[in-house]
Amino acid sequence: MAPVLDIQHLRKTFGDFIAVDTLNFQVEDGSFFSILGPSGCGKTTLLRMIAGFQQPTEGKLLIRGRDMSRVPPNRRPVNLVFQNLALFPMMNVRENIAFGLKRQGVGAPEISRRVDSLLERVHLSGYGNKDISQLSGGQKQRVAIARSLVLEPSLLLLDEPLGALDLKLREQMKIELKKLQADVGTTFMYITHDQSEALVMSDRVAVMHNGRFEQIDTPRNLYSNPATRFVAGFVGETNILPVRASSSAPLQVQTSFGLMLRATPVGNCQSDTLDLFIRPESIILTPAESHEDINLFPLTVQNILFDGSNTKLLATVGQSDHELLVALPQNQQFAHIGKGDTVPAGVHVDSCRCYPRGGS
User: Omega of the bond prior to 250 within 30 degrees of 0, cis?
Assistant: First the structure.
């Protein structure tokens, strides 16, 4: 099956500034594809090129195999949902959803059928005659998505649509959006700087940095096996230790405070100066037994950061003042650990990932 979106050597410059730098990727039909990156990385510029609001400097952009270079925004089989939603306050829910169909000249019976179908699919049956002002933030979000989906686009583009919602509602909407996309089957392309949104909802995620994609992968593999230093630091929490390589086969490194660790190199680690990345949940407290593939060291608890099931320890390594963040398991096995306690700890060699210092 042909991809719904095919990007070939796409590039966008503004004078000497390169906003999008020679991208090549495809988005599968019916998938939830997210672009994750910090502000200014080029993700909104990319979205605007796909929607037709900006023209590429170079490259091709195909939707269902059709070159979009000469197709204006209103003729492209895409729709865009913005953060501010842009709902019409003088129209009720039904009128908002029907707006695009009326502009296309669709007959009243067909409009009624399609609007009723969408209201049911976005779980707003019975809300058609309500004013927009009567809706919650999450309900407004669903109306905005329904208004775009009723036009049956090949691709729905969502530009940080949850950014204006409060934290609890964002958490709810992440789940709702994932379920909604699965229910309607439309391809979603989601832009965000929030890693949790990207990881929770997506089938595949592209991490963007300085106009380029650092890695395109499944959420699980992106988190577990970051391909570059930037991805390792941007996706998820991590401890970063500057280290020097003392041997290369196998890789053994030394921290600035004298701890020797066996590690796994990622990318070109020929330099003596490297950065070691260790996820907080990879640190094992009181390992049951020593093992040749586990680095062992003592930790002294400095603070307990209680957050329910996400409780963490801030602990120093050995006699040093270097702190590591340690995620506690969700069971109560370590509930007795208190501030000032020293506990044995370890981390598997595979979880000690080294990247070239200063690299991407």
Answer: yes
Q: What is the rounded distance in angstroms from the CA atom of residue 241 to the CA atom of residue 254?
A: 10
**Dihedral angle computed from the Cα positions of residues 34, 37, 38 and 44, in that order, rounded to the nearest 10 degrees:** -60
Separation CA 177–CA 179 (nearest Å): 5
Give the 3-state secondary structure of residue 343: strand
Separation CA 332–CA 150 (nearest Å)? 49
| Same domain as 223, residue 250 | no
Could you say which of 198, 229, 260 is where a domain stops?
229
Pairing verdict, β 155-159 and 78-81: parallel
Could you say which of 197, 229, 261 is where a domain stops?
A: 229
- In our burial notation (b when 16+ CB lie closer than 10 A, e otherwise), range 138-162 reads ebbbbbbbbbbbbbebbbbbbbbbb
Pair (210, 340) in one structural domain: no
Which pTM does this prediction carry?
0.88
Burial class (CB in 10 A: 0-12, 13-18, 19+), 62: middle
Residue of 305, 320, 316 lying closest to 343 (CA atoms): 316
For residue 68, the number of C-alpha atoms closer than 13 Å in the C-beta half-sphere is: 30
How many helices (H) and strands (E) the chain has is answered by 8, 21
Report the alpha-carbon distance of residue 192 to residue 206 in Å, rounded. 11
Mark out the alpha helices in 225-327 (DSSP H runs).
229-234
Residue-wise pLDDT for 33-62, tens only, equals 999 999 999 999 999 999 999 999 999 999
pLDDT (tens digit per residue) in 10-35: 999 999 999 999 999 999 999 999 99
- Residue 305: give the domain boundaries: 237-356
| Pair (204, 243) in one structural domain | no
CATH number at residue 246: 2.40.50.140
Quick one: 241 and 224 in the same domain?
no
Question: In what helix (H) or strand (E) does residue 112 lie, and over which residues does it extend?
Answer: helix 108-121
Residue 329: DSSP 8-state:
P
